[in-house]
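FAQ: What does a ligand-bound record look like?

Like this one, built around adenosine-3'-5'-diphosphate:
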Amino acid sequence: MKIWNNEKAAAIEAVIAASKLCENVRQRLNAGDHKEKEDRSPVTIADYGSQAVILSHLAKAFPNDPAVAEEDAAELTGATDLRQRIITEVQTIDPDATEHSVITAIDRGNYGGIEGRFWTLDPIDGTKGFLRQDQYAVALALIENGEVVLSVLGCPALPHNLDLPHGGAGCLLVSQLHHGTEIYDMQGHMLSGAVVDDNFNPALSTICESVESGHSKHDWAAAIAEKLGVKTQSIRMDSQCKYAAVARGDASIYLRLPTRPGYQEKIWDHAAGMLAVVEAGGRVTDMNGAPLDFAKGQTLSANSGVVASNLHVHDAVLQAIAETKNEYLPR
Ligand SMILES: Nc1ncnc2c1ncn2[C@@H]1O[C@H](COP(=O)(O)O)[C@@H](OP(=O)(O)O)[C@H]1O
Ligand SMILES: [Mg+2]
Ligand SMILES: [Mg+2]
Ligand SMILES: [Mg+2]
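The answer part, i.e. the structure of the complex:
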């Protein structure tokens, strides 16, 4: 069976370095550290800084590998102050960084992403959560011929135990296709394997969903919970940390239900999280039960919505979705 140990080592190092930058920025976040992109979504100096750190790291280790990453340096045209702050943050991680090296690294992320082997990166997933001082993730994955084969999902602010929100914080979920998911601390030491929970009773499931009602339909999730007989409140959490919660056995189900017709999920919002859950023994499909298709380019254009679970309760969730679809599917 193929292994990607060189890629794994480089990806872990890169995500740890970028997570440091993100935490540095988060701990003294101020108003000038973010702006609105053309699509009106927020982006911060840490999103750009994280992308620069990771893509320059990968460029050194694997110069021929293209990358599909969320951020685009073109959005920084004219934003002189923001650019300078990004460079300053990257220099705290890599003192040799220059304006040219930072912009070049960010722009390495603009591959269209269909053929062969490429990386996909969300330098900060859950930017809205990051700005609220809630959860966020640094999500990096390697795709070969449409298949996610390796991933490092950095969750720098995720408590080790969700019941103790102020306990030790930060972990990485590291996965390789057919080789499982491992949990590392933010210093790069392996802590344990990750396994989904062993709950077979849909009614006893903990469900997690997005904080943002514009990203996942909350009233539909509530209707599904009721069908399943779930009595407890769902956990609302930003970013791919929801996949981490399922992979670690903190939750049995992650629901992401479309809020508007035609929205196509981005590959960088799901590649790392999906592999983390599948390699921890879980299952990930779209809301109709189809596997997520990473061979379509930058978006999951063949899919709609996402369901991740511990495997055992998956079919019950798909059935509850099918039974509530007529009432809740946006059209
Ligand atoms: N209408 C929509 N439906 C689903 N996801 C959306 C969306 N608009 C934006 N998103 C994505 O939702 C991600 C955050 O997920 P969550 O809500 O689970 O924290 C965003 O990632 P970024 O924060 O990286 O931009 C963004 O790509
Ligand atoms: Mg994202
Ligand atoms: Mg992002
Ligand atoms: Mg974004």
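Follow-up question: can I read anything off the structure? Yes, for example: The longest helix spans residues 5-27.
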